[in-house]
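Colleagues,

Please find the record for the two-part complex below.
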Amino acid sequence: MDHTAKGLRVAAANRAAQRNGVHVSMAHADARALVPNLITRPLEARADAQSLRRLALWAQRYSPWTQSDGQDGLVIDITGCTHLFGGQEPLAEDLYAHLTRFGILARIGLADTLAGARAMARYANTATSPARAIHIAPQGQTEQAVRPLPIEALNADDNTTQTLRRVGLSTLGQIIDTPRRALLRRFAKTPGAETILTRIDALTGRDAKPFQPLSQPNQFHARIAFTEPATCSDFLAQTLPSLIQTVSDALHRADSMASRMTVQFCRADGSISRMRIAAASPHANPHQWRTLIMERWSRLDPGFGVDAMLVHARHITTKPPMPSANTPLLTVPRMGKSPCDIHPLVARLAARFHEKDILCAHTGNSWMPERVETLRPIIGHPEHTAKQSEKKPLSHNTGPHNTGPHAPRPITLLDKPEPARVIAGLPDGPPAQFTWRRITHKIIRAEGPERIAPEWWRDIGRPQPARTRDYYRIETQEGRRFWVFREGLYDDETDPLTPEWRVHGIFP
Amino acid sequence: MPQIPRHKPSPPACLNALRTTLAETQAQHRMGALTHSGMHADIPSNISAGAHFPSTDMDKALGQHGLSLSSVHEVLPQTPLDHTAAMGFMLALLKVLTTSPHHPRPAAPVMHIAPRHATQECGRPYGPGLRGMGLNTDHWVFAQLHKPTDVLNAAEEALRSHAVAAVIAHTTEPDFTATRRLSLAAQATGTPIVLLCSHRQSGATAAQTRWRIAPEPSAPHIEVPQSPGAPRWRATLTRARGGHPNSWLVEYDHETHALRLVDPLARRSVVPHPWKNHTNPNAAGNTQHPPKRAAKRAAKRAS
């Protein structure tokens, strides 16, 4: 939905909506009347434009010259690139397949000229077979292909189009057949005459408009090609530092830092062996990158020989500005020593083992014990770097999750609370004996119950609602201390299931 | 061709030259001029300085320098079920080590390394519980790895990084070679490492101290007699380099966040049953009549 001068209007509709009769620039009220359960979202023009631009950058896998066209189109100049994909038709089909996989509904038009291709893509449906999504004008026959299209394909403004229709011209073929002088004479007074002719010329190819390709964002990559395919891994490792130095220099010149890097082997048999490295925090230090890449060097396979090696820095962020003499320092070194940097260690360990294995504690916005604090991977969560710079003093009663200093918590928590057989007094007496993991423990002390009610807003849509938990802190005869809970209440009529006991954590 | 005079120094002069070179290199290494990353190497000037327990009784058994800040310490549970009790004692030990005034990086994060099966068996470390023991886990780094050798590798890597305050590693049965490597890494950077081993660990290792922990029933809670009190363990120092083995009954105080020795006689207070609501005249502190003797006396009186 878009807020226009005429009120809330439909800006775009998907196929299901169109089938039900909702079309573009229909009023919101009308659309709702047609389809009562219509899902609408406000139009975000900037975000849409950005994602279209990203798509144009992605489309550079077909050709280096791409550009976004209007608000819902892409233009790709594939002159000289078709042989890489085996021809025009396979290229168009590959593009269509990719876009469908992204979930984007597309119509593709191919022609000799830019305007012709645009016309084919947008309007060829109505003229020729409507079922096909790819319309290709054979080489040199753009004019013939463009003829059956309606005059809206000219992309002229509304007044001109209306005038043309009133005059009786409804397809592009008719306009092309009309002598140019007649058009000029008829439309001399209106401002649209010149443009009609220039547009026709652009369509037929007599006067091609220059194409402005999308300017690439600053790419930080370095490439080295070998005269003979290189098979020795050590030799490739020796050429790596110079590539990394080139990339680092480029990053320094642009005042940026990268947090991910890709090393790619373009092999002699046409395949590509790729390795991705992530750092815990963005930096441009070539030594650190080299250490990280060497950790995973064995995963790159030279195969039958490497023709070229490419190092590419991604996830670029600009460096924060250096503090001037007037601004106070943001991070104060602790106790006279330099602040410790744990990020190189984290990055090294993540490169050696796996990014998902190196975790940090993350406080959740919930009072259920398993969600109060969870462990999450450090790489991929920039909050850890923020926490390093500002450390608040530790206080016991901070945050909504803290139940207070009188509610002790276990030092280890089981990921899934394990069921236990418990003998306890009804309806909410403390347990007297419990059997867990096939060992029976006799309980001599218990504290509780601490009632933790479920978060009802998480239950929406679930078949079984979560149940209230009564937590007990218990101590056995041998001196072992556990944190158990009973799930469900005995007096509850709304709960059809019997209460169950589970062990959730262990105290020291 | 000019004759190059052959100048062979006598063997003692060679040895002296070698000795001076070695001494210089060692001094340089200690001063930290040889760190390749160019970071400020903060090795403590006195490598033998250590951390001390608050209770002098335990401290005396450790030897002259207390708990060394640049070596390996091992904590073992008595049985496989006491893993978390051993972990609790280990956290108390960690608190002693990181709050020592000689520690080079007290504010640095702590690295906790565990294999996945340990997490499945005993559970993951839980922040709110650790906070209750006086340790803030906001900036800790946790590693959950697959193989035991990975755990030792990661521990060595973390020790050599100059970026952690201490390393906790869950291992199974590390042998002398593995602990020697860890010990060398710890000495190089002045970072302590505590290993949580399995109960079957035996034999000589390069650890400075080895503790065996067994759980003990706690004293009744100060306010509510039926609640479990402060965690209590029987800590046995089985091996101590430079000290002598001993065994203590210790309790962790939640207010001072420190270990405290418990009088063994105080253990024999009557434990109330949670179901029977009789008030207990023999509350904590009253150690006059142990329950066995009272029961015997009652039986005698009855007969």
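Chain B touches chain A through 74 residues (CB under 8 Å).

Comments are welcome before we finalize the supplementary table.
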